[in-house]
Design brief:
Elements: H1 25-35, H2 44-47, H3 52-80, H4 85-96, H5 103-111, H6 115-118, H7 125-135, H8 148-164, H9 185-196, H10 202-209, H11 213-220, E1 231-233, E2 236-237, H12 247-269, H13 272-284, H14 291-298, H15 306-320, H16 329-340
Antiparallel strand pairs: 1-2
Length: 342
């Protein structure tokens, strides 16, 4: 539209002034080229041309956007739970134990078992495991009957379910396709029960660590005991002594649980040391290796740490996939050049 072709009026009959802003044909051409591109990263050819300063500024701003988005999600959980940081930490920790594939199922599971209920039974690991496996819908398999531990869980859960009028969450689906045995949901659920055993205080521990990488890693280096020390799932044995979480899994927890919690806590309490802990931790961690990071490294962008990898994940999901080139640093730069051409 390049002309004032129709008058516009306010409700009182007054005509609204209009201004015509002419757009360079080159701008329209370049914009259409970007948003209609058949490739996953429309500006792929230009990314490698960024200088070090442009790259650093772009990735840092996108990393902060992603941290902010994650913290907003946690903030909504925190508000629902009336400012209970441990409850919010528990829910987001449980969700992250799904490692993408089972995130929603783990979140539903945690929300069905609030900490104020679990803490009444935190001195009994068997009862905690019964709570979690029962609510997860994993205690109704006749094929496991006769397994002594499984039968114990069933008895405990039936008692607890009746005592507290528990209802299993709807829409909970557990996925195991193409998953390594050590990542099976059963082991992750057992790990969650382990964290609640003797009282869940992960948020307090994270704050006390003050961003210290070694102390944070120690928080997640747990060894499962009893049945889960020798099993991947019910009736499927595993080598003894395997850790509940490997180094890569711990890095994922540091990226998706610890860093966003530091960021949100810092913003909420005006403690900007916490915000610094979040960014410093991400800068310290190795970059994630996933489809998004591969796309950008193949385009010539240096992804040097987890702060960078979180940035490119955000760019791809929030800008490239949605074709918001006009709002992206590189896309905006390209379009600004096109708009200045006659």
């Amino acid at each position: 539209m390049d002309k004032d072709d129709a008058p516009v009026y306010r409700t009182n009959g007054e005509r609204i002034p209009q201004i015509v802003m002419h757009c360079s044909p080159k701008f329209n051409e370049k914009y259409s080229e970007l948003v209609n591109a058949k490739v996953e990263i429309p500006c792929k050819m230009q990314i490698a041309q960024l200088n070090d300063l442009e790259r650093a500024e772009w990735l840092q701003s996108m990393a902060f956007e992603r941290l902010s988005d994650k913290s907003h999600r946690i903030k909504s959980i925190l508000d629902i739970n009336r400012g209970d940081w441990e409850e919010a930490c528990y829910i987001i920790f449980a969700r992250t134990l799904g490692f993408g594939v089972n995130n929603d199922a783990f979140e539903l599971l945690a929300k069905s078992l609030p900490l104020n209920l679990l803490h009444k039974h935190c001195d009994s690991l068997l009862q905690l495991e019964a709570f979690f496996f029962g609510q997860a819908g994993m205690l109704n398999e006749p094929r496991y009957a006769g397994d002594h531990y499984y039968d114990q869980l069933c008895r405990e859960y039936n008692f607890l379910k009746n005592k507290f009028s528990l209802r299993q969450p709807e829409g909970m689906i557990w996925k195991t396709l193409r998953m390594r045995p050590q990542n099976f949901p059963c082991r992750r659920i057992a790990a969650l029960a382990h964290y609640v055993y003797n009282g869940f205080r992960l948020m307090a521990d994270i704050l006390e660590a003050k961003g210290d990488y070694d102390r944070l890693v120690e928080l997640f280096q747990i060894q499962l005991s009893g049945y889960w020390n020798t099993h991947y799932s019910f009736s499927h044995e595993s080598p003894r002594g395997t850790n509940a979480l490997g180094p890569k899994s711990i890095d994922i927890l540091l990226i998706n649980v610890v860093a966003p919690l530091y960021y949100l806590y810092g913003e909420t309490t005006d403690n900007y040391d916490m915000v610094e802990y979040a960014t410093s931790l991400l800068e310290l961690l190795k970059p994630e290796r996933n489809r998004c990071t591969l796309l950008f490294t193949n385009a010539g962008l240096k992804v040097e740490n987890a702060l960078d990898s979180q940035a490119v994940v955000h760019i791809y999901k929030q800008y490239c996939q949605q074709r918001k080139c006009l709002y992206c640093h590189v896309g905006h730069k390209l379009l600004s050049v096109a708009a200045s051409e006659t």
